[in-house]
Design brief:
Elements lengths: L2 H9 L7 H10 L19 E9 L6 E10 L5 E8 L6 E7 L7 E8 L8 E4 L3 E5 L4 E3 L5 E4 H13 L2 H7 L1 H18 L6 E7 L5 E2 L10 E6 L3 H6 L5
Antiparallel strand pairs: 1-2, 2-3, 3-4, 5-10, 5-12, 6-9, 6-11, 7-8, 7-10
């Protein structure tokens, strides 16, 4: 990649702090409290620590800690945030999973990103969901639950595509060029210069979500539900 690309890339995501970076900072500082059966209405939206577990760090193979937090996402439902941190090497990782049951029907969301403010829309991607950046024909397969936003999705895809590009340029220049074209398109998306584009989120478990807005009109935001196929039920561990 050219030096100018490196400079542009450094600007991605630095124009503002993601609301989920803020959420992660909030949960990282929480401590498990003894329950006193006292209701604090003003704290209903705060993540509640429900457990902490000593866990192996995949980065340095020493022991770190996984904290489990129960939190409610407005206009959606409760989720469990699993936040891992390692004091030895500083590695951190956050996953999510639904705190409820598999829904009766699958759900698919289609969202047209047309403005810089849309980049901050929340996304919950369960480990069963398939996310597609339709405009560039890029698919993020099922696996690893995520709590993020549109900007975070674009930046994660960009990071994944860039991995190994230096070696790829030496070994397979044609493939490098195709991926580099996608990287350049993603950079302009991340830097808010390439609207509109379309994201879809398809979850057979019904436990994923894209944040809606009362201002969404003219097909900007669509949600559809569908009956699962027998194969989808089997993949979710459901009987007939």
């Amino acid at each position: 990649m050219a030096e100018s690309d490196e400079i542009d890339r450094a600007d991605v995501g630095e124009s503002r702090e993601s609301p989920f970076a803020t959420l992660q900072k909030r949960v990282a500082g929480l401590k498990i409290q003894e329950s006193d059966n006292t209701s604090h209405e003003e704290e209903d939206d705060e993540p509640q620590v429900v457990d902490r577990i000593e866990s192996l760090c995949i980065n340095c193979e020493d022991n770190g800690e996984t904290r489990l937090f129960l939190t409610k996402i407005p206009y959606f439902r409760e989720i469990i945030i699993m936040s891992f941190s390692c004091d030895h090497c500083g590695f951190e990782n956050t996953d999510i999973q639904s705190a409820g049951q598999i829904q009766e029907r699958g759900a698919k969301y289609t969202f047209n990103v047309t403005h810089v403010d849309d980049m901050e829309r929340q996304i919950i991607k369960s480990d069963n969901a398939i996310l597609r950046l339709e405009t560039l024909d890029i698919e993020v397969p099922a696996g690893r639950g995520r709590l993020t936003n549109i900007e975070g999705v674009v930046c994660d895809i960009l990071k994944d595509l860039e991995a190994g590009q230096r070696q790829r340029k030496k070994e397979d220049p044609d493939l490098w060029q195709k991926i580099d074209d996608l990287v350049q398109s993603l950079l302009t998306m991340a830097l808010n210069r390439n609207f509109p584009f379309t994201i879809t989120l398809d979850d057979s478990s019904g436990n994923s979500w894209i944040e809606p807005s009362s201002a969404d009109k003219d097909g900007k935001y669509l949600k559809s539900e569908y009956p699962r196929t027998p194969e989808q039920n089997a993949a979710l561990g459901l009987g007939e």
